[in-house]
Amino acid sequence: MHRPVQRLSRILACAAVPVILVAAGCSSGSDDDGAAKDDAKQSAAAGSGKSAGTSGSASPDSTATATVRAKYAKLPEPCAALDAKTLKALVPAAKDKKGSQGSSDDLNARGTCSWNSLDSNGVHGSQYRWLSLALVRFDSDATLGTGDERATSYLAKQVTATRATADAKGLKSEKVTGLGDEATAVTYELKKKEGDFKQQTLLVRTANAVLTLDYNGAGLAGEKDPDPAKLLKDAERAAGDAVAAIATANGGATTGSGSDDASKGASDAPKKGDDDKKKDKSSASPSPSGSASASKSSEKDTSDKDGADKDSSGKDSSGKDTSSEQTAG
Questions:
Q1: How would you list the strands of the sheet with 182-192, edge to edge?
Q2: 95-109 pLDDT tens trace
Q3: Which of 200, 204, 165, 198 is nearest to 184 (CA)?
C-alpha cells in the first residue's frame, strides 16, 4: 500500500526536476538579457557623458569674431580740428577763418572742412592756397573686423586712389613718421590754366580714425610758385593738429594704437588693486590704543548692516572720390 504511493511520489519528484530546471533556465536567461540591457544602457550613458564632456570642453565656434571695442568713439568738428595759428600760417588770407564745413549725416563718423586763401600782391600776382581736412571713423564689427582693421583697409584704398590722380606730374609717395599709427605723404603737380599747383596730400591713421589732409598752393598772375617742401612741412603741422584733436575729443587719449592702450589699462588694473589691498591691510591693523573702539565700531556697523538688510527686501577739389566713406561707422 505504501510502496505504490512512495513510487508515485518519486515519479512526480523526478518529473518536477526538468520543470524547475526549465524555469530556472528561463529565469537565468531573463536575468542575463536584463543585465545585457543594463550594460548597454550604462555604456550608452558613459558614451553620452564622454561626448557631452568633449563638447563641453570644445572651444567656441571658430568662425565667430570677437568684437573689440574701437579706441575712438567720436570725431572732433572738422572745422575746429586745426589750431588757429596753424590756419593763419597755411591760409593767411582765408575769407572764412572758420572754414566751410561739408555735409554729413553723422559728424561722429565722418566730416570735412575746407579753407580757400588768395593773398593778392597787386601787380606782382597772388599766392593761392587751398586746405581741406576729411575725417572718417570706423567702429568695430563682428563681420567686417575691428575698427583699427577697417581703418587700415580704408587708408590703403585712399593711398592707392591718391596715387592714381589723373594728370598728376612728378608724383612721389613716401611714409611719414611721427603722425598717428601710420601715415603716407603723396606729392605731385597739377598744371592748370591758372598756374602750376603744388599738391600735398597726407593720409594718416590714428587707431580707428583716418584723416586725409590736402594742401596745395600756386603762384598766380606772375607770382613765384611756392616751395613744395615747405608746403609739405606745413601740411604735416596741420595733420598733427588733427590727430591731437581726435584724441582730445575722446578724453585726451594718447595717439598710440588701441591694443596698446588696452594693454596699458590691463597693467594698471592690478596696481590699483594692490593699492586697495594696502589700504585694506593698513585699516585692518589699527594701533593698539584704537583696537577696542575699532571693535565696537565694527560691531555697530554689523548691527546697522543687518538692520539695513532687513529693511531692504543707464569730392573735393583734389579729385579724390570720397564715396567710400559710407563704410564708416
A1: 100-101, 110-120, 126-137, 209-220, 195-206, 182-192, 169-175
A2: 898 999 999 999 999
A3: 204
